[in-house]
Write a structure and sequence with these properties.
Elements (H helix, E strand, L loop, with lengths): L9 H10 L6 H7 L17 E5 L5 E4 L3 E2 L7 E2 L8 E6 L6 E6 L5 E6 L9 E4 L4 E5 L7
Antiparallel strand pairs: 1-2, 1-9, 3-4, 4-8, 5-6, 6-7, 7-8
């Protein structure tokens, strides 16, 4: 999918996400940078092997083998699937200085990245479940 086929306004994004059976919070999280409440997301305690993709554009973002339990209430990963899959932007909202993580392909808000994760990267990509979709690792596909 390329950016020319993606929705161009809020109404189109709402319809797009609804057609993908995204959870109701997906629009507010991905397009308006909202955050789901901690310990409520469907992937926070999800440990099945597979890949996590952007709910908006299906870009591959994270592999399950980089997911770890950070105890923060959101799915956490120590690195993205590809160094160019997730972009970082300075976020000064809520009176804090944080680093926002967005999908490089469609600009969807995913969450934030912090420098308190495990080795080998020391990073914690703290993601909203509502911004992700999951593709189970199949028996035929061991990548």
């Amino acid at each position: 999918m390329n950016s020319k086929t993606l929705p161009q306004n809020d109404a189109e994004w709402r319809d797009w996400l609804r057609a993908k059976n995204a959870e109701p919070l997906a629009f507010e999280v991905t397009r308006k940078a909202a955050t789901e409440r901690p310990f409520t997301g469907k992937y926070e305690t999800h440990w099945e092997p597979g890949q996590y993709h952007c709910i908006c554009c299906d870009a591959k973002l994270f592999d399950s083998n980089t997911k770890f339990d950070a105890g923060c209430g959101w799915p956490s990963f120590y690195q993205s699937a590809d160094p160019e899959a997730v972009l970082q932007k300075v976020d000064r909202s809520l009176g804090m200085l944080r680093v926002e993580s967005v999908c490089a392909q469609c600009g969807a808000h995913l969450g934030h990245v912090f420098e308190d994760g495990p080795e080998p990267t020391g990073l914690r990509y703290c993601m909203n479940s509502a911004s992700l979709s999951f593709q189970k690792k199949s028996d035929e596909n061991h990548s």
